[in-house]
Amino acid sequence: MLETPLGWAILLILGMFTGVLSGLLGIGGGLLMVPALTVFGVPLVQATATSLVGVFLSSVSGSLRNFKAGELNWRVSLLLAAFGIVTAQVGAWLGDRLPDGVLSLAFAGLLLITIYLMRLRQRLKQAQREFIETDRELPQTTDLSVLSGLSMPLQLGPIAGIGSLAGLLSGLFGVGGGVVMVPLQMLFLGETIKTAVRTSLGAIVAIAISGLAQHTWNGNVLWIPGLCLGLGGMLGAQAGTRLLPRLSDRTVNVLFRLFLIGLAVYMAIRAIRYWEG
């Protein structure tokens, strides 16, 4: 069905829907596209590989805009990507060899971890805002005093760890990795949230290419469905970002948690059915 014009139209609409949610909830489309593809009977490893097409398109679009505006820290992006492209190959290699049930259960765990990481991101953003407004050291009770060194020099160790982890997750699960990279960059590199988002997006361009190359070699990428999802996601994200200001933070947070919990339950049930069947 997905290889027919009707299937492509459905995927375009589905991509727009995931794009709206992505722009609304502030998470990468890969976290939404992968479970959506499995609903149509696509094996998880193929859903992961196909999702990277959309991740690549969206990251290129955003990075070009940031580059033209002079807002892309290309040095940090390249360093993150240098480590991420290696582990993306490892993640894609593992994804092609792990049972579908194991991948489904691991993906469910990633969705739950994402909830925590997004909460961490919000706390870091608030801590940075308070630090900038008061121009004083952060209170010790925040446990985020590292943020007082906003101008700290680049540290190769944290960059290597962040880039490597993002690459592994990208290749293994078909996600961009920004949901992990952004809070870790804020925490360990002292970047502001806007800088971290732009830097991670730039790194994801190369990381997604690396994962796509390995998955293409393994024959897992469904190119036309991936392009339909990616194009729809890019359109939908514009609508999501425009809708976001009209909703309260509490509403967005509740929607975010409920939606990811629902997806996690779905992926866990999928894993159980795999082992039972």
How does this structure look, described?
With 277 residues, the chain is mainly α. It has one domain. It contains 10 helices and no strands. It has helices at residues 5-25, 30-39, 44-68, 74-95, 100-134, 156-173, 178-188, 193-217, 223-243, 249-276. It is globular and about 60 Å long. The model is unreliable at 138-152 (pLDDT under 50).
Describe what is shown at a glance.
The chain has 277 residues and is mostly helical. It is built from ten helices and no strands. This is Probable membrane transporter protein.
Attribute tags:
globular, TSUP/Inactive_protease-like, cell membrane, transmembrane, 0% strand, Probable membrane transporter protein, mainly alpha, transmembrane helix, 277 residues
The separation of the N and C termini measures 23 Å
Poorly predicted tracts of residues:
138-152
Shape: globular
Helix content: over 70%
The tally of structural domains comes to 1
Structural class: mainly alpha
Biggest pleated sheet: none
Mean pLDDT: 82
Q: Give the number of DSSP strands.
A: 0
Rg over CA atoms: 18 Å
Percent range for β-strand residues = under 5%
Protein name: Probable membrane transporter protein
Transmembrane segments: 7-32, 44-64, 76-95, 101-120, 168-189, 196-217, 223-244, 256-275
Subcellular location: Cell membrane; Membrane
Keywords: Cell membrane, Membrane, Transmembrane, Transmembrane helix
